[in-house]
Request: fold
Amino acid sequence: MKMIVAIIQPHRLEYVKEALYAADVKLMTVSEVLGHGRQGGTEEVYRGLKETGNLLRKIRLEIAVNESFVQPTIDAILHGGRTGEVGDGKIFVYDLAEAVRIRTGERGGEAIG
Reply:
């Protein structure tokens, strides 16, 4: 089992969800977060002075998958999230030691589908 965490642009969320659904990945947690990568935030001009804001709105997806869904999930996020511009985001893949479905008590791969 793996936990896939992706940080994407907010305006790409619907495209990523469509790509995930097409790959038969339907279980996910979505959060609004703040952060920045190499682009270093934003720069605005206010009353003739440049002001730099260092945190940008992003979307964080957390998706627990069995091994056979790791690559399809990554491919779907890439397909839906890529614009080719700086700030498209990142995908992280972690080992998932355990999962338990609270309702049934199922464990491991059965718990995440």
Summary: The beta strands are 2-8, 29-35, 42-46, 49-53, 56-65, 89-95. The CA atoms of residues 30 and 80 lie 15 Å apart.
